[in-house]
Amino acid sequence: MKLLHLDSSILGDHSASRQLTRDVVQACQSAHADAQVTYRDLASNALGHFSAASLAAAGTPLEARDAAQQHEVVANEATLQQFLDSDVVVIGAPMYNFTVPSQLKAWIDRIAVAGRTFRYSEAGPEGLCGGKKIIIVSTSGGLHQGLPTGAGHEELLKALFAFIGVTDLQFVRAHGLAYGEEPRASAMTAAQQQIKDLFAA
């Protein structure tokens, strides 16, 4: 089993989402001895934001690309293939200003690719990633789940992965982390229990 572990928090060792994604991966490894983990830090090794240059590079024939275009195409293809090759993807998705980190959005823009992760047909769009399991560690300083302020966070991720065909989507949540030491500790403890429940025999 191939597991892709993604972090996107900019907070390093102070990050709740990073702590929890590590715990998810460790629990998965304990449950699946054959798990092969690939780690990617989208904050410290960030992809460039998707741009007109990205599109131009993809549409330029190999022999006509300059060095920058070739680098862009190779990096984008590697990112996409890494996702396609994975059976399980664990994603740290903190909320920044009511949405996901821009570094995570840049990754999303590389894996939502027509003809690779979804396709259009006469019946409409069809997702091509139905065999994957996605576990999202959702963290936030406030409480936004089910509110308009949360629409650009979990709802965005739900819509994206549903669009590309993922039906096995799980969330580990630690919200209200900025409400004080006790609420933070309680939220983290609850998240740890959610992780245990995910991998309970």
Care to describe what's here?
- The strands form 2 sheets. A 5-stranded parallel sheet has the order 2-1-3-6-7, sandwiched between helices. Strands 4-5 form a two-stranded antiparallel ribbon.
- It is an alpha/beta fold.
- The longest helix is centred in the middle third of the chain and has 18 residues, at 67-84.
- It has helices at 16-31, 52-59, 67-84, 102-111, 154-163, 181-198, and strands at 2-7, 36-41, 88-94, 118-121, 124-127, 133-139, 168-174.
- Helices cover 40% and strands 20% of the residues.
- It has a single domain (2-198), classed as 3-Layer(aba) Sandwich (Rossmann fold), CATH 3.40.50.360.
- Strand 6 (133-139), helix 5 and strand 7 form a beta-alpha-beta unit.
- The two termini are 18 Å apart.
- It has 6 helices and 7 strands.
List strands and helices in order, with pairings.
Layout lengths: L1 E6 L8 H16 L4 E6 L10 H8 L7 H18 L3 E7 L7 H10 L6 E4 L2 E4 L5 E7 L14 H10 L4 E7 L6 H18 L3
Parallel strand pairs: 1-2, 1-3, 3-6, 6-7
Antiparallel strand pairs: 4-5
Query: How many domains comprise the coordinates?
Result: 1
Task: Compute the number of helices.
Answer: 6
**What is the CATH topology?**
Rossmann fold
- Biggest pleated-sheet summary: 5 strands, parallel
> How far is it from the N-terminal to the C-terminal residue, by CA?
18 Å
Q: State the fourth-level CATH superfamily.
A: Flavodoxin domain
Secondary structure: number of strands? 7
Strands in their spatial order, largest beta sheet:
2-1-3-6-7
Using the alpha-carbon principal axes, give the shape. Answer: globular
* Assembly form of the protein: single chain
CATH architecture descriptor name: 3-Layer(aba) Sandwich
Mean pLDDT: 96
The top level CATH class name:
Alpha Beta
User: Spans of 5+ residues with little confidence (pLDDT < 50)?
Assistant: none
Cα radius of gyration in angstroms: 18 Å
The proportion of residues in beta strands is 15-25%
Please give the share of residues in helix: 25-40%
Helix/strand structural class = alpha/beta
**Helix/strand order:** EHEHHEHEEEHEH
Domain Flavodoxin-like fold: 1-197
Binding site for FMN: 9, 15-17, 95-98, 139-142
Family: Belongs to the azoreductase type 1 family.
GO molecular function, one term: oxidoreductase activity, acting on NAD(P)H, quinone or similar compound as acceptor
